[in-house]
Structure formats: C-alpha cells, structure tokens
Input
Amino acid sequence: MDFWTTIGVILTGLIALRFISQLGKSLPILELMLFIAAAQWIIGPLIEYNAPSLHYKYYMYVDQQRYMSYVVPAFGTFALAILLGIRSLKDSTIPLDKLKHFKDYGVTIFLIGVFFDLIGSSLPAGIAFFAFIISNFKFAGAIILFFSDDQRLKPIFYASLVFLLFRAIQSTMFHDFILWTAFFYMFWALQFKPSRQKIVATLLIGALSLTTLQTMKYAYRQQVWNGYSGSKIELFTGLVVDAILLDGADQEQLDGELNNVRLNQGWIISAVIDQVPRGQTFANGQTVKEAIIASIFPRFLMPNKKMAGGQENFKKYTGLYLGANTSMGISVIGEFYANYGKGVTLAMGIWGLFLGFIWTFLWRTQFNNPFIVFFLPLIFLQVVKAETELVVVLNHLVKASIVVFAFFYVTRHLFKWEIYERYEP
Output
C-alpha cells in the first residue's frame, strides 16, 4: 500500500476503536459518523482497487495514489477537527438517574410522532419535511420510555425496532432502520453497560446481519419493483434464508451486485476528481453557499432554493447520468473537492470544527436539560450518512434543531413541562 492508503487504514482502525470504547459511556454518534465515512471513503475504495468489481459504471475513475492523496488527508483533518472540538467533553457523562423521570412526557412524544407518521403523506409539500422530523419523535419517545421505571412501557422501545424493520420491508429502503438500530443500541449500552467482549460480539453479529441484508437487498427490490403481489414479509424472510444457506453459485445470482459496490462511496468521489476541473470548472463555493441558504430559509419563502436529492450536482460534477427516479449524492467530501480542489482538506477541517461545536453546544445543554439527550439521534440523523451532500446534511441539522428547541419552548412555557426547572443544579 502507498503512504496515504496506509494512513487511511490506520485512521479507520483508530476510529473503530474510539467508537467501541465510547459505547456504554456516552453517545458516540460522531464516532459512528466518522467510522461510516472511513468505511465508505477509504476501505470500500481500497477493496475496489485490489479486487475490482469490473462493473461498467461503479469503478474507480482515478488511480489509487491520486484518490487517496486527496481523500485521506481531508478525512484525517475532518476527524481530528471533530475530536479536538469535543475533547472538553471527555469527562462528562449522561445523568442516567435523571432520564427515568420523563415517563409521562415520553408517552406524549411517542404519540405525537405516531400521529404525524400517519398523516404525513396527506400534508402539503411545503411542510412535509417538518412533518417528517416530528414523525421521528416517536423514536425519541420510545427511548424515553426505555429508561422509565414502568416495566410495561419498556417494550415500546423494542417494538419500535420491529416497526422500523416492517416499514423498511414495505418501502424497500433500509437506511433509517440501520441507523436507528445503531442509535437504539447506543442507549441500550448506556443502560446495561455491556462488557467490551459483549460489545465486540454484538458489533460482529450486526456486521454479519448487515452483510446478509446487503446480499439479498438487490434481489428483494427487483422483485418488489417488478410488481410482486404477494406478502413482502414472506418474500423478505425467504430471501434472507436463501442468502444465509445458498451455495456460492446461487449466492451470486441472488446478489445481483457485489457488496462492495454498495459500501464503496469512493467511486463517486473518484468520478468527481476525474471530472473537475478537466470537464467541469470548480464551483468555488457556489454549492456551499446554496446549501447554507437552503438550510436557513424555508421553501415557502424561497421556492426556487436548492433541491435535495443530488441529481443536479451528481450529473454536473461526475459527468455521469442517473435515471429519472434515481438519487445519488456526491458526499460532502466530494462536494468540497468540486468547490475547492486541493482546498478540500481545509474545507473538511472547518466542517469538522463546525460539527464539533454544534455537538458540544447540544451536549452541554443536557446539564440543564437532560431531555435533549433523547433527541440527539434525530438532530444528527442525516449528518451521519457519508453519501449525502451538504444541502441535505445542513438543512436537516438546522431544521431539526429548530423543531426540537421550538418543541422544548412550547412544552415548557405553554404546557409547563418541567424539563429545565426540576433539574437545575
């Protein structure tokens, strides 16, 4: 391996160790984000370089040395900026004894989320995003109930995971199920403090389960999208069993695509590096400016603001085309390269400092308002995804924070919820 590839592998290992060490002690959401990014930006590309999939489109568009020389320093600066930004929190812990007092609020929040989940599809497009955020309150409510002393309410926590899986099977989209399962596990680990051996064993089981899901997901989607009229649950279950039990030849037929194609976000980033500035000039901060504006102003005030989805930037900065119903993002690191070229390292460092600042602010809020802890996964739901562009990440981070703090304000001042006063030191 060349120098930067070696550094990238070492960084990935260190991030993985950091994530494991924080489970049961804190909420390592930023560590999860860094590990996902390292896996998709460094490990996935490394596998592709050494064992090419030979796919006509999903391949690395630049050589390994060139790719890693841009991505690894940028990722390393990003990780270092985040870890330095949150270093002052290393000795702070979540006051678990305070979390059990919010049972009644948890029931209300859970029901609010369920209500908006049911009516979300019928709401006007202008408020659909806000309804989506509030619908996710049901998971915050489920986490609150998990810490309740009332044993009758705890099953709602586990039932929420079953609901997520059911929803994923019906929609054929599994991202939210995977992420919320990871978030729920963080809270479970906080409560039960599993040993390091149990954590590693659980993560290995999770990795194997994720591999099985990735193996059969393509075949499942193809059948559903081609008009499958039977029970989706039965189809999904059958394909999972097949993915576990079938031999190599049948496995390849079931898969349809290689697993690393899905892990490897680097093929898109490499396409950006190949396209810019050879076939497209640098954006010089234009997409970053558009993302900031989109995150600040609601669409009813700026109907022509930047749309999420990634099609426009993908086509422009990779030179590749997507189907009408396909959305792919070039990722934050790919977008920063498209804007600043070699300045991607500095841009990623600034982005890391920003995320570290936001996390530190929210984390310190819990000292006077432990309630915020339950909503941190919702606020960072899009931030942890390595494949999303800045407009998606920043828009969700800002809007979700506004919705959550507005909810705190309304419940505290209009409904007299004691989420601050009761626990002030």
